[in-house]
Amino acid sequence: MIITHLNLGILLTRIWRSMVDVRIAGARSSTKPNVSAEISNLVTPGDVITADTGFMRGHGTYMEDEKLYASVAGVVERVNKLICVKPLKTRYNGEIGDVVIGRILEVGTRRWKVDTHAKLDSVLMLSSVNLPGGELRRRSEEDEKMMRHYLKEGDLISAEVQSLFSDGALSLHTRSLKYGKLSQGQLVSISPSLIKRRKTHFHNLPCGASIILGNNGYVWICPTINEEVEQTGGYEQNLEPIQKSDREVIARLRNCVLALAEHKMMLYDTSVLYTFEASLRYSVKETVKPEVMADIIEVAQQRLEREGT
Amino acid sequence: MAGLELLSDQGFRIDGRRPHELRKIQCRLGVFNQADGSAYIEQGNTKVLAAVYGPHEIRGSRSKVLHDKVLVNCQYSMATFSTGERKRRPRGDRKSQEMTMHLQQTFDAAIQTSLYPRSQIDIFVEVLQSDGGNYCASVNASTLALIDAGIALRDYVCACSSSFVNDTPLTDINYLEESSGSPEIIAATLPKSEQIVFLEMNGRLHEDNLSRVTDMAVKGCKDIHDILDQVVRDHVSEVSTVHGWEN
């Protein structure tokens, strides 16, 4: 007994020495820049924004005694007569037309419940998905019985926001071949406020991987599928093993996305690509280290400033 | 308590403060990545961590769903090593259950609950080190965590305790003063509008002195608000400068 414990102890110590990269909390360099002069139109909960009654109440504000108060901490945004306060981070606030990544939570009658990091679970109706093979017809009882064959609990999908319910819940649709079930790849979850709104959120990056930047802060990284033919809404999954080189690219991209999020940089195709290219000087394993991350981000940031968007 | 002078003739308290002085407050927002909002606060030797999850779909039984407002769910717990005597503290014990209820009531009053119908907000509070004023530090930490999570509040909620010794009201009392048998008033307020959302009193206090002691606690809340507000402003400025949102 004693001997085995001792052996285990020695073994663990060896593993520790060879694998663990130790940093003491105190030695960590503070990445925080010196706090520059406070931003002028900054408010915190309970601050009076204006006592003027001529304004309209937007998100993050409330009216009391004819005064407009802030209810969250953030920067005041004014569009004509409308005043809003945008907090730094929140749950995802859906808007119609947004591209989102979601995970199926529940199969219900004619609908799926989907987690999209919103305040309430989103709904994907059976009538708003493409049936396998792209058939266009009314959904029959047979289809209802087959629902779990199409999408089951734990499956990941990409979808678009179709409408909003009165309580703020989202209704999704996948009525396009670019949406649908996701097969092999990696999901990264970051703050929704870091995703830049763009014309397209699907990108085939030149480094050999595709990335879907969901507006809800979920980012999907997968190997690029070349054939146009394969866009079947994801019902036919390709479960062939993925090459090591592709997996390394995906892992590197994941680390880049996390590094961007860590440094509060906006995510869009160019920023991700520049970060990826800046990270090529290091091995994939090294890119999770905080100091390497900071270095990569600095290089990418400089390049972004130099070469524009 | 025999031999323990809570207030010296020179007007100093045991830890060297004047009657109206708060303990040193240090705090930080966004200490966890996983939570929607989180904060850490030190008030003297009392150290508290708070994490907020939500608003999200109600977990567990469907019957808890409130159709017009959000369900505020709190959990207060104390670490095994938080007090002088090491002791395992199961979550469901009476003291922490009572504290959980108090926190829940406090934040139900301060969160704009009607904005998030059918959903739930979880507030988890862990006391890492306890030196009196656990409720106050928990409330202050939770407020910061809620702000970090971007949840709409009517105002900050700040809590402060006060006591009454030698005809003098003391503010923000520590463990020694708390356990000396002198009366204790705990107030949680919305400092800007000076509304009291929670008030608790332990011990015996003459009616004539009540308003003085309460005023001291409310004044303490305002002082705490100023400190917390500065921290929040610094945090928001720093992050939004990086974002490039200032313009």
TrEMBL record, chain A:
Subcellular location: Cytoplasm; Nucleus, Nucleolus
GO molecular function: RNA binding
Residues in K Homology domain copies: 185-224
Keywords assigned: Cytoplasm, Exosome, Nucleus, Phosphoprotein, RNA-binding, rRNA processing
CDD domains registered for this protein in UniProt: KH-I_Rrp4_eukar, S1_Rrp4
Pfam families registered for this protein in UniProt: ECR1_N (PF14382), KH_6 (PF15985), S1_RRP4 (PF21266)
Residue ranges occupied by any Exosome complex component N-terminal domain in the UniProt entry: 42-79
Gene3D superfamilies the UniProt entry points to: 2.40.50.100, Nucleic acid-binding proteins
Gene Ontology CC, one term: nuclear exosome (RNase complex)
Domain RRP4 S1: 91-163
GO terms of biological process kind: CUT catabolic process; exonucleolytic trimming to generate mature 3'-end of 5.8S rRNA from tricistronic rRNA transcript (SSU-rRNA, 5.8S rRNA, LSU-rRNA); nuclear polyadenylation-dependent rRNA catabolic process; poly(A)-dependent snoRNA 3'-end processing; TRAMP-dependent tRNA surveillance pathway; U4 snRNA 3'-end processing
Domain of life: Eukaryota
Family: Belongs to the RRP4 family.
Quaternary state and interactors: Component of the RNA exosome core complex (Exo-9), composed of EXOSC1, EXOSC2, EXOSC3, EXOSC4, EXOSC5, EXOSC6, EXOSC7, EXOSC8 and EXOSC9; within the complex interacts with EXOSC4 and EXOSC7. The catalytically inactive RNA exosome core complex (Exo-9) associates with the catalytic subunit EXOSC10/RRP6. Exo-9 may associate with DIS3 to form the nucleolar exosome complex, or DIS3L to form the cytoplasmic exosome complex. Exo-9 is formed by a hexameric base ring consisting of the heterodimers EXOSC4-EXOSC9, EXOSC5-EXOSC8 and EXOSC6-EXOSC7, and a cap ring consisting of EXOSC1, EXOSC2 and EXOSC3.
Name the UniProt record assigns to this protein: Exosome complex component RRP4
Species per Swiss-Prot/TrEMBL record: Mizuhopecten yessoensis (Japanese scallop)
Automatic annotation (TrEMBL), chain B:
Location within or outside the cell: Cytoplasm; Nucleus, Nucleolus; Nucleus, Nucleoplasm
Domain Exoribonuclease phosphorolytic: 21-151, 155-220
Molecular function GO terms recorded: RNA binding
Single GO BP term: nuclear mRNA surveillance
Domain of life: Eukaryota
GO cellular component: a single term: cytoplasmic exosome (RNase complex)
Keyword rRNA processing included in the entry's annotation: yes
Keyword line: Acetylation, Cytoplasm, Nucleus, RNA-binding, rRNA processing
Family note: Belongs to the RNase PH family.
Quaternary structure and partners: Component of the RNA exosome core complex (Exo-9), composed of EXOSC1, EXOSC2, EXOSC3, EXOSC4, EXOSC5, EXOSC6, EXOSC7, EXOSC8 and EXOSC9; within the complex interacts with EXOSC2, EXOSC7 and EXOSC9. The catalytically inactive RNA exosome core complex (Exo-9) associates with the catalytic subunit EXOSC10/RRP6. Exo-9 may associate with DIS3 to form the nucleolar exosome complex, or DIS3L to form the cytoplasmic exosome complex.
Protein name per the record: Exosome complex component RRP41
Lineage of the organism: Eukaryota, Metazoa, Spiralia, Lophotrochozoa, Mollusca
